[in-house]
Design brief:
- With 104 residues, the chain is mainly alpha-helical.
- The protein is built from four helices and no strands.
- The protein has helices at residues 2-23, 29-49, 55-78, 84-103.
- It is flat and about 40 Å long.
- The mean pLDDT is 95.
């Protein structure tokens, strides 16, 4: 169960990172409220997952899900470039996340 909680925490991190783009410097009320809510929920779920998972593993996987998800969201939502080097870098992050999961 802590791994599932951590997954949702990471997905919410992607949500708030993308949400920051829509807040327009926190000048748009609804995107700002949703972004802050996603931030709080993400941190709360991370804290719950850390009750049973090692600190370093949980935090690294949380940030890794956020990083990979945000890169993919940027490509899909904002037309950011998908170069071979960028794709390779994302795959290296994913490989590291899988390694951490297997080592836990």
């Amino acid at each position: 169960m802590p791994w599932l909680i951590l997954l949702f925490a990471g997905l919410l991190e992607v949500g708030w990172a993308v949400g920051l783009k829509y807040t327009d410097g926190f000048s748009r009320p609804l995107p700002t409220i949703l972004t802050v809510a996603a931030m709080l929920a993400s941190i709360a779920l991370l804290g719950l997952a850390m009750k049973e998972l090692p600190l370093g593993t949980a935090y690294a996987i949380w940030t890794g899900i956020g990083a990979v998800g945000t890169v993919l969201a940027g490509i899909l939502l904002f037309g950011e470039a998908l170069s071979p080097l960028r794709l390779c870098s994302v795959l290296l992050i994913v490989a590291g996340l899988v390694g951490l999961k297997l080592a836990s």
